[in-house]
Amino acid sequence: MPDAIDPINAVSQTAGTGSPIIHALFGGTFDPIHYGHLLPVQALAQLVGLNKVILLPNHVPPHRPQPEATAQQRLEMVHLAIQDNPLFTVDTRELTRQTPSYTIETLKSFRQELGEQRPLAFIIGQDSLQTIHTWYKWEELLDNCHLLVCSRPGYKSQLSTPEMQQWLEKHQVDTPFPLSQKPCGHIYLAATPLLNISATDIRQRHHQGLSCDDLLPPSIQNYIDSQGLYKQ
């Protein structure tokens, strides 16, 4: 496994002389990491002008069943998936936390390290946007970051209640430019590729002995096979 690096410094060193660099975070259980994670975020990076995306593997996700793979196995799969892709780096602060991984606490941790003025963004999918009002202290998210929302098949950009839709419209921006001009507070709905791939489906296909070759990188498939993962 590669040596641990400081993702904040790794991202900061890429900053040029133009607009302030946006520090972008993308969290997930990554059980396993797959093309549905990687390809939309790569497209998002091109749309927004992200130089780096920091992946945040969760240890104890508060809103979903516990992972089948161990924390160490999921981290190894993340490293394998991004080893030849300079866009991505990894931060393990959520993975080493023994309590549930609440996004707001992670964002405040990054904000403390970055300072108050640097743009910080958190990447989610449209599915998560639909349920964001159920997140712990969700009202504080935009006080600490921007939200970059990737498209998901079958999900509308319209939110479930008039109040939530009003919240979205209040903070939504139509172009990426404002994201680099403020440290937080905007929501950008990105037209990223619609990939109908889920880790749940991949695990179920493995349970049934079906191929997943078109759903995740070969290095991840090889690791899953070598570790005997998702056999139950």
From TrEMBL:
Any one Gene Ontology molecular-function term assigned to this protein's record: nicotinate-nucleotide adenylyltransferase activity
Enzyme's top EC category: transferase
Domain Cytidyltransferase-like: 25-205
Reactions accelerated catalytically: nicotinate beta-D-ribonucleotide + ATP + H(+) = deamido-NAD(+) + diphosphate
Pathway: Cofactor biosynthesis; NAD(+) biosynthesis; deamido-NAD(+) from nicotinate D-ribonucleotide: step 1/1
Keyword GTP-binding (UniProt): no
Matching SUPFAM superfamilies: Nucleotidylyl transferase
Gene3D superfamilies named in the record: HUPs
Sorted UniProt keywords: ATP-binding, NAD, Nucleotide-binding, Nucleotidyltransferase, Pyridine nucleotide biosynthesis, Transferase
InterPro entries: Cyt_trans-like, NadD/NMNAT, Rossmann-like_a/b/a_fold
HAMAP family according to UniProt: NaMN_adenylyltr (MF_00244)
Function: Catalyzes the reversible adenylation of nicotinate mononucleotide (NaMN) to nicotinic acid adenine dinucleotide (NaAD).
Protein name: Probable nicotinate-nucleotide adenylyltransferase
